[in-house]
Amino acid sequence: MKYAHKSQGFTLVEIAIVLVIVGLIIGTLAPLMISMIKKDKLKGGREVVQRARDEIIGYTMIHGGKLPASTSDLSHTKDPWGNSIFLIIAPGLSTTDVCSVNATSLSLILYQATGGGACSTGSVISNIVGIVASKGPDYNRQISTLNPSNQVGILDYGCMGDLYPADNSGVTSDRPFDDIYEFISLDEIKGRVCPPPSSNATSSP
Predict the structure, then answer these.
(1) Residue 30 placed within a domain
(2) Is the pTM of this model over 0.85?
(3) CB-hemisphere CA count at 13 Å for 31?
(4) Residue 138 counted as domain residue
């Protein structure tokens, strides 16, 4: 009498080998996937801020040269990390036609790395009409608020530090700057929004 041959299942050794192989694959791919997700979100954050910047210019065109007063006037208001972007507009320009002014009271100080690595040297950029920014991957704002001189402090990418400690639980010195920002100068927005000056020159006979 013949008995049917029973197929054997996986042995414990074979299962262990499979688990080791799966573990190696996951261990290799997981960091790569996490890195790709971070890069994708960072790219998305830059795109959101750039689009918000374009919307500021578009809003100014539509509203008689007046800049938006807040991000509620924009379509892109959230970054890929779920945080609201923030907007700093030169005082008065949400109610004044930008084409009628020749200077703004808003300027930014961009702190860049010096020879010793410290970002303590600031370059002043004047006649700014607006700054739009995201808190970036660490979810914390590091760009300063307006000081009494209507200046905003921004660290260069790669600098360590923080200019907005209220958002960071007292951590101000060992945090890499990762806010994503764009700014618009007066000359740029006037070139985009304002009609060219009419020429009254007459040709000589």
Answers:
(1) no
(2) no
(3) 4
(4) yes
